[in-house]
Amino acid sequence: SDQFVDDTQKAVFAHVDYDLTEKLSVFGGARYEKQENTYRTTAAGPLVGPPSDVTAGTKGNVTSPKLGLNW
Question: Distance between CA 21 and CA 19 in Å, rounded?
Answer without folding.
Answer: 6
